[in-house]
Task: inverse folding
C-alpha cells in the first residue's frame, strides 16, 4: 500500500504525538490525585450512587468493570460501570471520574441532544469505519474509473471526525455537571473540587486529541486524493 507512506504521513505522526501526550497527561494527573484521599471518605461507588439518588435517577445501577480507567456509562442497559482503579477508591480523582460518569446518566435522563446524537451516530460510524478504506482501495484499483469510490470512502471516513466533534460537548458537559454537583460540598470538601477539576480537564484533553487525530487523518486523505485528481 505505497499511498499510505507519502509526504502527508507527517500529519499522522503529529496526531500520534498529540494523542500519546494527552494519554500520558491524563494518566499522570489521575495517578497524582489518586494519592489524595477525600476527607469525607466516600468511595467512588458510594459517591456515584449518592449523586444518582439525589438526582432522582432510580433506573441506573452501578457496577464494577475490569481495567484501569475503563469507567463508562452504558445508556442502553442503564448501567454505570466503574473500573478497578476507581470503584472502591476514596481518592479525589476516583470520585471526580465517578461523578463525570453520573453526569452522562443525568444527560440521558434529561434527553441531552448531543448525547442522543452521539448514540445515533454509533452504528453509522461503525459501518463507515469498516468500509471506508476498502472503498478507497477499490477506487485505486479501478484507476480513473474509481473516483466515485474514493470520494465515497473519504465521506464515510469523515463520519469518524463528525463523531469525535459531537463527543466533545457531551464530555465537557458531563464534567461541568459533575463539578457543579461536587461543588455542593456533600461529597468533596470545597477545596478538593479544584483537584477533581484538574483530573476531569486532563481527561477532556484525550477527547480533544482524538478529534484532532481524526481531523488530521481526514485532511491527509483529502490532500492525497485531491492531488491525484489534479494529476
Result:
Amino acid at each position: 500500500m505505497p499511498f499510505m507512506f507519502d509526504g502527508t504521513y507527517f500529519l499522522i505522526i503529529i496526531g500520534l504525538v498529540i494523542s500519546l501526550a494527552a494519554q500520558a497527561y491524563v494518566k499522570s494527573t489521575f495517578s497524582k490525585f489518586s494519592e489524595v484521599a477525600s476527607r469525607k471518605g466516600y468511595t467512588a461507588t458510594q459517591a456515584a450512587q449518592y449523586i444518582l439518588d439525589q438526582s432522582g435517577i432510580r433506573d441506573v445501577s452501578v457496577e464494577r468493570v475490569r481495567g484501569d480507567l475503563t469507567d463508562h456509562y452504558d445508556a442502553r442497559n442503564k448501567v454505570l460501570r466503574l473500573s478497578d482503579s476507581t470503584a472502591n477508591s476514596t481518592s479525589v480523582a476516583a470520585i471526580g471520574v465517578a461523578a463525570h460518569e453520573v453526569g452522562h446518566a443525568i444527560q440521558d435522563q434529561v434527553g441531552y441532544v448531543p448525547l442522543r446524537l452521539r448514540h445515533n451516530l454509533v452504528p453509522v460510524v461503525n459501518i463507515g469505519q469498516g468500509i471506508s478504506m476498502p472503498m478507497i482501495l477499490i477506487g485505486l484499483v479501478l484507476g480513473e474509473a474509481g473516483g466515485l469510490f474514493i470520494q465515497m470512502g473519504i465521506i464515510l471516513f469523515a463520519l469518524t471526525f463528525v463523531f469525535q466533534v459531537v463527543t466533545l460537548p457531551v464530555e465537557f458537559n458531563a464534567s461541568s455537571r459533575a463539578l457543579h454537583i461536587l461543588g455542593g460540598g456533600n461529597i468533596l470538601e470545597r477545596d478538593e473540587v479544584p483537584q477533581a477539576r484538574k483530573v476531569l480537564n486532563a481527561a477532556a484533553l484525550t477527547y480533544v486529541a482524538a478529534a484532532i487525530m481524526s481531523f488530521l487523518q481526514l485532511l491527509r486523505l483529502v490532500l492525497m486524493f485531491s492531488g491525484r485528481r489534479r494529476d
Summary: The chain is about 70% helix and 5% strand. The first strand starts at residue 61 and ends at 65. The mean pLDDT is 90.
